[in-house]
Each structure stands twice: as C-alpha cells, then as structure tokens.
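quick one, 154 residues, struct below
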Amino acid sequence: MALGNALVPQLIAAAPAVSVADVRRYSFELTARPESAALARRHTAELVTRWGLGDDLGDEAALVISELVTNAVVHTAGTRVACELCFTDGHLTLAVRDQGYGACGPALCDAAADEERGRGLLLVDALSVAWGAHDVPHGPGRIVWARLGAGRAC
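---
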C-alpha cells in the first residue's frame, strides 16, 4: 500500500480547520499471519514515539492495533493486512483493512471467564473514544478503525 492512502474515509475532510502540516499519516502492509500482530505493535509503538505523542498513547495504540490485526488474521481468509495510523486534531486514528470477511462484522462479545479468546474488541472499546467498521467500497474486505484521544480529554 502506498503511503498516504486513506483507509479511514474522509478523515482529513472531517477536520477542515487542520492544516496538512499538522497531519501525520503512515501506512504499512503485513502478511496475514498470527505473528504479524507483534510486528504491527512494534511499528505502531515506534511511530507514536517518533511523532512525540507520549508513552501512554503509544502503549494504548500498540495494544489496539495488535487486537485489530489479530482479528483480521483470525476472522478472514486474506493473505495481507494493511494498517494505517493518522494523527490529527489531538486524535490518533488506527485502521486495519483485511481482504475478506464473513457475513457479519466485528461485535463485542461476552466471553466466559475460562475462555482464552473473545475480549479483543472489549479492549478496543475501552481504550478508544470511538471505533467502527465498514466494508471496502470496491472488492472484498473490511476496514476496522479506532480513534484514540491524546490525553483522554476527548
């Protein structure tokens, strides 16, 4: 995926008062394998540090991107996962695009205490000021995104 391709639709257009110089955006692609979640976590933490957004936001972003990539790998049959980070207007938006999906989108689950899985979106929901999903406009796939607030004052 080329740098700057928007996974989150109309992200910059939603904040017209923000100058392009204030927008930080980065995207990368990974193979759809379980170990890609750790790689996405490292890329995200390093990027948030490089952008000077703080350790707390970096830790939260790394956890959220890890959960989104894990879901894309576990619940789809694609071979690639695309990730994008965009910081603008005090918010860091993370988006993950997969290549295929089932009949329903991501949903919060009530996992039993003895279950090892099923809590990823609960973590995303707890750490995000907003999150959601939509189908890719052309071709198979879905984009799942989460918006984190720098300083939680959002």
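Residues 1-6, 8-16 have pLDDT under 50 and may be disordered.
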